[in-house]
Amino acid sequence: MKGERHIIIAPLMTEKMSALQEDQNKVAFVVDRSANKIEIKRAVESRFNVKIDKVSTVNMMGKTKKMGRFEGRRSNWKKAVVTLKEGFKIDFFEGK
Predict the structure, then answer these.
(1) Residue 73 class from Cβ within 10 Å (0-12 exposed, 13-18 middle, 19+ buried)?
(2) What is the reported pTM?
(3) Percent of the chain clearing pLDDT 70 (strictly above)
(4) Residues 46, 50: Cα–Cα separation, whole Å
(5) Cα dist from 31 to 4, 56, 70, whole Å
(6) What is the DSSP string of 10-60?
(7) Residue 95 — pLDDT band, cuts 50, 70, 90?
(8) Ranges 55-59, 72-76, 87-91: which has the least confidence
(9) Is pLDDT above 70 for 70?
(10) Which residues of 10-19 are buried (b: 16+ CB within 10 A; e: fewer)?
(11) Which has the closest alpha carbon to 76: 64, 62, 59, 63?
(12) 7: part of which helix (H) or strand (E)?
């Protein structure tokens, strides 16, 4: 089993996720591709000191990109959308 620092790679901050965080108390993370829902739940709960209701995961395919005559590909990645229990909140921009 991997440590929590290796499972959660980065928070996913987009306009859509900001709206979901305000309305439905959901937060998204970029996670390790081999991590399962149980490992993601444990890592988020211990790192941010919150209780989690549900974890949804999506495997995202990397896009093909062109720069002139050269063609490359972005990496595949995994997104986890975590639903927090009522009364809990994660604030990424609050100073401590």
Answers:
(1) exposed
(2) 0.87
(3) 96
(4) 7
(5) 10, 12, 29
(6) EE---HHHHHHHHHH-EEEEEE-TT--HHHHHHHHHHHHT--EEEEEEEEE
(7) low
(8) 87-91
(9) yes
(10) eebeeeebee
(11) 62
(12) helix 4-7
Position 69, amino acid = R
Cα-based torsion angle of the residue sequence 85, 61, 34, 43 in order, rounded to the nearest 10 degrees: -30
For the chain, how many residues are written? Answer: 96
The domain 4-84 having CATH identifier 3.30.70.330: the answer here is yes
CA atoms within 13 A on the CB side of 89: 9
Closest by Cα among 37, 31, 42, 30 to 7: 31
Nearest by Cα to 80 from 41, 23, 22: 41
CB 38 within 8 A of CB 46: no
Q: Where are the domains of the chain?
A: 4-84
